[in-house]
Design a protein that fits this description.
1 helix, Jelly Rolls, about 0% helix, about 220 residues, five-stranded mixed β-sheet
Amino acid sequence: MATRLYLPSSGSAPSSPNGASMWERQVSLFARYPTLTTKANTALTDFADAFGSTSSSQSLWLMWVSDTLDVDQTITGTSSIVVRGLEAAAADDLHLAYALRVMQGDTTTERGTLITQGATATEFTTSAQTRIFSAQALSSVAALAGDRIAIDIGFHGLTPQSGATGTLRFGDPTGTADFALTSGLTTDLCPWVELSQTLTFGTPAAGSSKFFAFF
């Protein structure tokens, strides 16, 4: 069974890792939030900011950090993502970008990178609609109990015009359905990230790898 992770629009992240190395910058609204396998009932909210460059590059909008993995787990398979957003003008040339990493516990040290996706794909338009990546192959990472999953989401800009502005919409209201994994949807539903394998989260048992990793 796959592991679906929701993208709340508020809340306190359990740790504060740095963004993945793929990002050239992070925008002024950048924040970290928790990600859970169940909805936290946060409102669907637009996050709009300036891309920050006219060069082809990546700008990090937001990050989500998971609960701890409860046992050692080798993470492999694929990932998929669906997010609704827009660009302020057609010349902004903004595309969905994301990264998934395994972080060593509450530290800023990466256990390994599962995927970075910062290439030109399907450009956003000036009206809000979904963009996706489907079944993208992951690099295998041997995660230890106590590690966390970090999700970075932002934009890849393909020589965007000066002052380019993008909007991404996040939240997970419990009364709202999830998006289908379909590009171009204009409905106002819940975005998500999904890994193809089952991951388990919680407090690691005494004697697990967490209790040896940092001594």
